[in-house]
Design goal:
Layout lengths: L7 E5 L12 H12 L5 E4 L11 H15 L5 E4 L5 H14 L3 E5 L8 H14 L4 E5 L1 H4 L5 H10 L3 E6 L4 H10 L5 E4 L2 H9 L4 E4 L6 H12 L3 H17 L7 H9 L16 H13 L4
Parallel strand pairs: 1-2, 1-8, 2-3, 3-4, 4-5, 5-6, 6-7
GO molecular function, one term: 4-hydroxy-tetrahydrodipicolinate synthase activity
Subcellular location: Cytoplasm
EC number: 4.3.3.7
């Protein structure tokens, strides 16, 4: 299964809501169509950017199934199925597998802060219970613990269906360690837009991206250029959108990206608590950059 060939721009898609707080199905469909026509290489549904912690299990399943049907195998669909409970993670993953996703994205257990042994056992137990490809997700700023390079490589070597990692620690040195030590076919994706092109030039395979929600065509071009070593093109695109990449995290993700999409008329500016509308001061900075780039 290490022939999982997905590379490039993989959008962690937002979850749009109606004004009364329900899932905005029409807006979700239109976002997917927009990505399909603008070169996005893969789609992650029910990830951090999708406000998944505030969704119900039924809503998760609905969004995953909707995405699979809407995409129609044109690009891979990856479902976020992580949990701080191993058994719950297995249950979510089996449901996504039955729906027909191409892979699952499994975050390191949050809040529990497992030991190295516990972290390995969590992913090993999940890998033994499901058949669908698994992408590990290391984001210690959110989880309070980390998936070490040693554990990643050990898991990748032990389980054929552990095919990739989304590395979102913000540490470029970790990318080099993962790329240097990974088994053949194991993919390394950036979870940080800002570092993604640099990581690709060092041997990584793409990015599970926030900013691809806003500039799908341009981010796909950035990923393609960095994967082929076209430094001139990388610099032209990266430096154009460098400031916007930073502003996507001026408040907790997905607040800035969803605010941007609302300003673009693609979603409503509605969040699930505890996410909330941006502060006026930070929103003003974001809007100023969006106007400079003629995005709004």
């Amino acid at each position: 299964m290490k022939n999982f060939e997905l590379k490039g721009s993989i959008v962690a898609i937002v979850t749009p809501f109606t004004e009364n707080g329900d899932i905005d199905v029409d807006a979700f469909d239109q976002l997917i169509d927009w990505h399909l026509t603008n070169g996005t290489d893969g789609l992650v549904v029910c990830g951090t950017t999708g406000e998944t912690p505030a969704l119900t299990g039924d809503e998760d399943a609905f969004l995953i199934e909707r995405a699979v049907k809407r995409v129609g195998r044109k690009i891979p669909v990856i479902a976020g199925t992580g949990s701080n409970s191993t058994q719950e993670c297995i249950r979510y993953s089996l449901k996504a597998e039955a729906i027909g996703v191409d892979a699952v994205l499994v975050v390191g257990p949050y809040y529990n802060k497992p030991t190295e042994k516990g972290m390995y056992m969590h992913f090993a137990t999940v890998a033994e219970a499901i058949d669908v490809p698994i992408i590990l997700y290391n984001v210690p700023s959110r989880t309070g613990s980390k998936i070490s390079v040693a554990n990643t490589i050990k898991l990748a070597n032990a389980f054929d269906n552990i095919v990739a990692i989304k590395e979102a620690s913000g540490d470029l040195a970790l990318f080099t360690e993962l790329v240097a030590q990974r088994p053949d076919g194991f993919k390394v994706y950036s979870g940080d837009d800002f570092l993604s092109a640099s990581a690709n030039l060092l041997g990584a395979d793409g990015c599970i991206s926030v900013i691809a929600n806003v500039i799908p065509k341009e981010f796909a071009q950035l990923m393609a250029a960095s994967l082929t070593g076209d430094v001139k093109e990388v610099n032209a695109i990266f430096y154009k959108f460098r400031e916007l990449m930073d502003l996507m995290f001026i408040e907790s993700n997905p607040i800035p990206v969803k605010t941007t999409l609302a300003e673009m008329g693609r979603v409503k500016e509605v969040f699930r608590s505890p996410m909330c509308a941006m502060e006026k001061s930070t929103k003003a900075l974001l809007l100023d950059e969006l106007k400079k780039l003629s995005i709004i």
